[in-house]
């Protein structure tokens, strides 16, 4: 579905179109409320891996290869499981239900859902051959994985739980200083004189 269109974050109907085109590939059909106005909730798959430490796979490895090297335990999430914080638990990696086959002009970024932060659970998404968390390169094809680290108390999660969300983006929607000045002149962005370097 690579197509010309406006730059910026894709709205709900464009996210649905990505799924219809097979560029978002859920292993099970989407939940009725999973597509949000400008994001898609990501769901935990049926298994979690407790690993020795957080990691990024780097440009030459997949997440599955790194899990194989670092895993301590495999945990079945189909009926729910307790993930422990701190020394007795720590870092868990969960393959997500949603996989991607993005067109070359679509990238994505992920972040925890607000409810996840309120529970003091640290999460971030990892992709194959990546050097950054929570960043999905344009044209990425492959599995998504969620790193989960409970911070304060144990949590119960199960397959289908939604702890993180993804936003899809076409192009670079950032404005340079000249464009910001022009936009501010048309529609004030801040009170007073904006401090934009000349």
Please identify which CATH superfamily we are dealing with. Answer: Deoxyuridine triphosphatase (dUTPase)
Q: What is the global morphology?
A: globular
| Main pleated-sheet profile | 6 strands, antiparallel
As for the CATH topology, it is: Deoxyuridine 5'-Triphosphate Nucleotidohydrolase, Chain A
CATH top level? Mainly Beta
Features:
198 residues; alpha+beta; Deoxyuridine 5'-Triphosphate Nucleotidohydrolase, Chain A; six-stranded antiparallel β-sheet; five-stranded antiparallel β-sheet; 4 helices; 16% helix
Question: Would you write up a description of this structure?
Answer:
- The chain is α+β, with helices and mostly antiparallel strands and 198 residues long.
- The chain has one domain (8-186): Deoxyuridine triphosphatase (dUTPase) (Deoxyuridine 5'-Triphosphate Nucleotidohydrolase, Chain A).
- It is 16% helix and 36% strand.
- It has four helices and 13 strands.
- It has helices at 12-20, 63-70, 114-118, 177-186; strands spanning 8-9, 24-26, 40-43, 47-51, 71-76, 81-83, 91-101, 106-112, 121-127, 135-136, 141-150, 155-157, 162-170.
- The strands form three sheets. Strands 2, 4, 5, 7, 9 and 11 form a six-stranded antiparallel β-sheet that branches. Strands 1, 3, 8, 10 and 13 form a five-stranded antiparallel β-sheet that branches.
- It is globular.
- The N and C termini lie far apart (40 Å).
- The mean pLDDT is 90.
